[in-house]
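input
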Amino acid sequence: MVGTTDRISGRELERQAYPAAGAARELLPALTYLRTAIVNLFLYGPRNAGDRNWVLVDTGMYGSAGRIVAAAEERFGRGARPRAIVLTHGHFDHRGSIHELVELWDCVVYAHPLELPYLTGDSPYPPPDPTVPGGAMARLSFMYPRKPIDLGGRVRPLPADGSVPGMPGWRWIHTPGHTAGHVSLFRDDDRTLIAGDAFVTTRQEALTYVLEQTPEVNGPPSYYTPDWKNAERSVRLLAELQPELAATGHGIPLGGPQLRDELRELAMNFRTRAVPSHGRYVDTPAVTDERGVVSLPPAPVDLTKTLLVLGGAFVAGLVLARTLRPRRRRGREHHVVYEHYEEPVIL
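output
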């Protein structure tokens, strides 16, 4: 279990609380987390809780369903299905395995009402912004999926009273910015926070930080945050809660003074610590409503994408030219056959 009263070094946190991707780890007696590739998800419920007596928070990356089911059965019992799946938001890395899981478990999915357009097939997310500085994860973000999924009648809005189905004592908090309907989950009794991507505990834009999981409090992933003013308000709101333990969508769970000090510093200096120096949404946010995207600021020129497209076009041109180039073949009478016509013409 991660300590929540003393400052814990990054090395100790990694040893205690952040195993290799794919291995589940208990943070608190009823809170376990699982890393799938670059993102974390959470299983809430006591050990051996049984069928319909636990909750899954987020569903990780595509292709992770088998690993999630195995972790759930190891903790809650063979064949144990959750009462519900709760999504902090619906970006591809947080809902990647959801189709397989809802079919297998026949369960309900809960999300904020402003997140529903992206989960019912009505709207794609605002495009990621690969022009923000930070590293390879940012530069390659133009390739990340943003199309909506359609969960149909399986997805429902979170209760208006702030409660979290299947998680008594917890409340959901609307923390927009990273997405319009982003939520964080908070338990007041022990000030435990599941923050989603409202803030993260690694520098998600840089591949080296992602691979090493260097522990530090940072703003939401900048390449996929289309509303920086709301993102700042959300971080300030969470800092005011003074969480004792924070489990985030990316990075090592942090607790105690280290968490509160770094989160407070991030909230006070958000514009210099989190907001990119330049980018599509820095000055003008994406406008969204309950139907999805309403308007977007103009897309800046993305040199990485442009170079990749030009390089791909060049390679494709070479392949096409080689394919269409006349190929000489000599028969017994040394006739030349031009094979790229529908019917060979013998000269």
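quick obs: The first strand starts at residue 24 and ends at 28.
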